[in-house]
Amino acid sequence: MTSLFEYAPAPESRSIVDIRPSYGLFVDGEFTDGTGTPLKTVNPATEEVLSEVATGSEDDVDRAVRAARRAFVKTWGPMRPADRGKYLFRIARLLQERAREFAVLETLDNGKPIRESRDVDVPLAAAHFFYHAGWADKLEHAGLGPAPRPLGVAGQVIPWNFPLLMLAWKVAPALATGNTVVLKPAETTPLTALLFAEVCQQADLPPGVVNIVTGAGETGRAVISHPDVDKVAFTGSTEVGRSIARTVAGTEKRLTLELGGKAANIVFDDAPIDQAVEGIVRGIFFNQGHVCCAGSRLLVQESVHDDVVAALQRRIGTLRVGDPMDKNTDMGAINSHSQLARIRELTAFGETEGATCWQPDGDLPDRGFWFKPTVFTDVSPAHRIARDEVFGPVLSVMTFRTPDEAVAKANNTTYGLSAGIWSEKGSRILKVTDQLRAGVVWANTFNELDPTSPFGGYKQSGYGREGGRQGLAAYLRSDS
Ligand code: NDP
User: Is 292 annotated as catalytic?
Assistant: First the structure.
């Protein structure tokens, strides 16, 4: 798309990454063949096939769980907690050393701008390992009981929107608390998890502590339903989360679910508009809107609605959408053809239901999966674009007159993962925050994530917390 300012192209080189033509599963410290039909993973910005990746069958998953159990019983479980911490520190440092390789690979496989994978995903993933490394030998001081013990083998299934970061959210706390792991990455973004497997080898992590089993939904189902898995951690859609909850019900397995969201970003009339506009853009267009805590519902106080929408449209006109490998790009490609189809379907509903659709001028690349940043005004709370998680760069704008109406509209959702408030008045921020049914509330900022801060939702956004001291509890038994 054309933008206000023209920049010379600033492409990141992909030569730092050596993508193999095919990858196996990572089981018991080694890459091995999978017995399912291999999958191809593509670059969503170009539709180029990047590699062929093995699919784990039920038998492969069983092999991985048995390796994880052996490691739990023989090496990782009995290891001194301070030594476990050393391994985590080593992994964190290797992620930093190989940061550029991870960032380039993440951008190629996922479609997100290199600026985001380089400045957000990879540094935050390393930060999660550093943070949890510090906890490894201090768990008895975490306020979770006098002698907390690990659960055993964790089965973890993650989505495609933050492939390496979601892996870090899952693997770091599991290992720090003495558990071993079988992790299934998303079908469309397996490559950074497989590079992470190489990091595990480089760190001399004992075999079986981390196992990575690639594949589609069936492989995920085999992981979460394996009888020797003690804990299930899932991030993804509410629909799949619900089916996992049904599978796990009645077993001894512990479960945490981090599911969808439809966050309200509330702008009061005293908010500094230019600052709020930056936060609105970051809230919904960061990572192409493929963010569970995205601020996809903008609630604007009626008196400033026109000013905010005009400023927002001006700002969106300057966003650069295109080659994710270009360091000037603000918005990259949609992760898959099926996600693009879902975004198109939901935005079409927006128009037929009577909302007004606005998109900036300009063309999108011919190949690959692309969607323009989109703003819907004249949205009513009953419209599907105000209720359903689009999981794309689509913002629905609604208005309110009083703080009570803002709270009522913000809470009028089946989700409850996050929210944002923009106001100069501290007392108003505190009062409204208290009334919002959302796991995270940001004030005068949005989409700030930190390993020290617990993250998780209310209602259909799931249960359990990840990150912070609270996130450790999900991986520990404190009944002794
Ligand atoms: P899914 O929930 O299907 O995928 C998440 C992960 O679960 C993937 O690894 C997936 O494998 C795996 N999986 C799929 N089915 C099962 C199953 N029955 N048992 C165990 N694991 C399973 O999300 P989608 O990728 O299909 O996205 C659909 C919608 O979900 C999006 O449009 C978005 O609205 C929402 N979503 C929300 C996310 C969030 O963070 N809140 C993240 C991703 C999606 P595979 O990749 O092979 O399908």
Answer: yes
